[in-house]
Amino acid sequence: MSRGRSDRDLGEREGGGRGAFALDAAAQRSKAVAKAAWWTAAGGLAKFMTRPTEGKAAPRFASDAPPVSQGRLRRAYFAAFEKDAADVAAGLYPPMEDAPVDPAASILKAWDFLADAREVDQRRRRGDGVEVRDDPKSQGYPAYYRQNFHYQSGGWFTAESARRYDAQVEALFSGAAGAMRRRALSLLARHWRGRDQRVLAAVDVACGSGAFLRDLAQAFPRAALAGVDLSPAYLSEARTRSGRGTVQANAEHLPFGDGSLDAVTCVYLFHELPPRVRPIVAAELARVLKPGGVMAFADSVQPSDEPQLARMLEAFPAYFHEPFYGSYAEEDLPALFAAAGLRVVGQDKAFLTKALLLAK
């Protein structure tokens, strides 16, 4: 049995016996229900409006994998929320504030997402994933970064994109994005359990608009935390959401000393890196860790993790402009990180996300 699985079993047993956190777990479940219903409805409406799989200009892909079992998919989806609530019940982290709580703000966010959905679909049908390269704000950045990943308007370069990003992701995953990425938080929280937060320092690399950095701040309020990203627009959003400092930097060249950090976190970055860049970033993440330090990693599951979902995973880059996803799907991640001096000491999985804890 892997350490990641045994840790998970322990957490579930703890969650069942810790009355002190029972109300917190109930609160997390109620938030999850509200969030899932809201973003499932928003995502469904966007699909109804755009019908991305229909029409002559709809993307096409070929696959030898069998159709995805909808029952299997639903079970994996609901299990993500249950794992999240179990970790709250175990006292690993508090209930997370990522459900719609302000009706007016939630409606405006959903309206903005829906208004932009048509532009995203038109870009998808044109196959235009590099529109952003004509934007002066994108000059001077790595070529692989200057793309409209997910066909999103503005790429990584506008304040509007940064504000809209979480709505797009939550609608895509029917409200499960937070529960999925917190598999990495779960692994880190178990590893740090009982440690004095005041002496711990961690950086969230490729923090984007700050959703995971906010989770870290809520789980470890006394630790020294910061976010790193290449996009000034997304860093501004991350600072607002998390209340923590940020640094603009490329993950290939982090502005931290050798062995200076207790932990680094990295969520949904590696599937957007070209194959030649992944070893560079892995080595850089390892460089800044102290001996014994850890990296909490989360990204898409790979077909080898979920063979029953292989067809869906193969369709993803066709509909969402992920030019490096195909090579990521075949990447041997433990071997990639082992070459950088990191070994897998924990693992977890929820819905369409896998998480690893790697030690230096």
| Corresponding CATH superfamily of the domain at 194-359 | Vaccinia Virus protein VP39
- How many strands? 7
- Architecture of the domain at 194-359, CATH level 2? 3-Layer(aba) Sandwich
What is the CATH topology of the domain at 194-359?
Rossmann fold
Strand arrangement, major sheet: 3-2-1-4-5-7-6
Q: Count of helical segments?
A: 12
Which geometry do the CA atoms define?
globular
Radius of gyration: 20 Å
Q: What is the share of helical residues?
A: 40-55%
CATH class type of the domain at 194-359:
Alpha Beta
Question: Spans with pLDDT under 50 lasting ≥5 residues?
Answer: 1-17
Could you explain the architecture of this structure?
Pfam families: Methyltransf_11 (PF08241). GO terms for molecular function: methyltransferase activity. Keywords: Methyltransferase, Transferase. The protein has a domain of about 170 residues: Vaccinia Virus protein VP39 (Rossmann fold, 3-Layer(aba) Sandwich), CATH 3.40.50. The chain is built from twelve helices and seven strands. It has a seven-stranded mixed sheet. α8 links the parallel β2 and β3. α1 packs across α3. The longest helix has 29 residues. The chain is globular, with a radius of gyration of 20 Å.
Write a compact overview of the structure shown.
By secondary structure, the chain is of the alpha/beta class. The chain has 12 helices and 7 strands.
Present the secondary structure layout.
Layout: H1 3-17, H2 22-50, H3 70-89, H4 103-126, H5 159-172, H6 177-192, E1 201-205, H7 211-219, E2 224-229, H8 232-242, E3 245-248, E4 261-267, H9 278-287, E5 289-300, H10 310-320, H11 325-329, H12 333-338, E6 343-350, E7 353-359
Parallel strand pairs: 1-2, 1-4, 2-3, 4-5
Antiparallel strand pairs: 5-7, 6-7
InterPro entries: Methyltransf_11, SAM-dependent_MTases_sf
Organism: Caulobacter hibisci
Keywords: Methyltransferase, Transferase
